């Protein structure tokens, strides 16, 4: 990258930059490049206000002028990034959306090691185990932002938080929530480590030896864990929890959508700790 | 349809029945045929136990024998429906899923008029206004089942509750929850009509003149309404509510995912009415 930045215009579908951008919809390519894609002026503005500047900004040539877009362009150029103009059709091809947003950005993936999280920074954390749906994962990030969580910890083989679907569903929370990826065997010692007052409380919704979720003895930092969409949490993971809680199930089903369970439980923990 | 039922075997992708089944993934065709598709042994068993027998049952030739599947086949044959065997590849093409369930069923769409709902049958009802995501809609049905809601009322132009995505996300609740479709101008008089003790209380999450959602004066039958994913509820819809409540938003975002908001609010109403 060199300064000053040239504003490139791209009009061909076979342009290498278009191919590169489109490839970021694929997990393998994201991993290799260490980069991901986020769309939309509001989301990119959230990113900017959280200190995340895209390395590349791609704008539709047909966009309406907007002061927030001007601020984005300035920030990217100031940071030595590249600003590219292209057609709505090509933007649509890049993002895989019929009605694409007028702007998209390429970001470097963040550090997702447990060590990068400060568990004393927030009273609530969300934990997902083998969650396969990127929409659920993004929704959990969005909920985490709302309940003042510190972030989302992904245990075992989860969907990619940097996928276009997860970033979209997070509504910008991918930039504000901490994100860590770890195996169960890494997570548990990390959770139990440190001085007593920092020791995390691990809570899961469960049908086994559980107490009602309302009025349960939640304690900060409280880690609210949900499991895989089909299988739920492994039995030994549940057994390792400090607290197993149960939510009313009045109908035929015995479980909630994973992101819904995390939210109902998360809001209960918030009320309990705030009260 | 004639009795006794022949078990047809279909091995060709261009078979008219395959084309018919595949067409049910399309809203236009569902509407014309008045039928929809549901997949999976568990879901079809839920349907059966709720008194919904598929008109046609499609099974993979490679399926494992299962007593629940035997019960399904018997029920369909007894009702004069058709049982079809086909290859996993064709089932995959029909359902649009890479790893299809071993069985799918075709159901007649239900009556979705407001008049078919008995509001005294349950203390809680969910209401969605212009909800566009079929996954959100299915998740609301699933949550409704869990909180003992009577059903889901779809206001204005919502996603189709009989789409494959909504049925899948509902985890069978599409068969157990009441479903009605209405315009706002039909819904409001229906809600306010009838004797005083049956008059519904309309509740929405709102930022305008709202009270905290915890401890708000909920009353049965309580109708919990959420709005469109992007725009939320129209201002005049909010103004017409009996109760506007607000949930804590500790982060940058000012809203939750629609299905998440319905669940957090729905569980709060349940606790309030049960307490």
Question: How does the SSE layout of this entry go?
Answer:
2 copies of one chain form a homodimer.
Chain A: E1 7-10, H1 16-23, H2 27-33, E2 35-39, H3 41-49, E3 56-60, H4 67-78, E4 82-86, H5 88-95, E5 103-108, E6 124-129, H6 134-146, E7 151-155, H7 164-170, H8 173-176, E8 178-182, H9 184-192, E9 201-205, E10 211-212, E11 222-226, H10 235-239, E12 243-246, H11 258-274
Parallel strand pairs in A: 1-4, 3-4, 6-7, 6-11, 7-8, 9-11, 9-12, 10-12
Antiparallel strand pairs in A: 2-5, 3-5
Q: What's the short story on this structure?
A:
Chains A, B: This is RNA methyltransferase. With 275 residues, chain A is α/β, with parallel strands linked by helices.
Structural class of chain A: alpha/beta
Greatest chain-chain contact: A-B, 36 and 36 residues
Remind me, CATH topology of the largest domain in chain A?
Alpha/beta knot
Estimate nothing, just give the exact number of structural domains of chain A.
2
Share in β-strands of chain A: 15-25%
CATH level 4 superfamily of the largest domain in chain A: SPOUT methyltransferase, trefoil knot domain
Q: Show unreliable segments of chain A.
A: 1-5
CATH architecture of the largest domain in chain A: 3-Layer(aba) Sandwich
Q: Give the tally of β-strands of chain A.
A: 12
Number of helices of chain A: 11
Distance between the termini of chain A: 51 Å
CATH structural class of the largest domain in chain A: Alpha Beta
The largest sheet of chain A has its strands arranged as: 8-7-6-11-9-12-10
Rg of chain A, please?
A: 20 Å
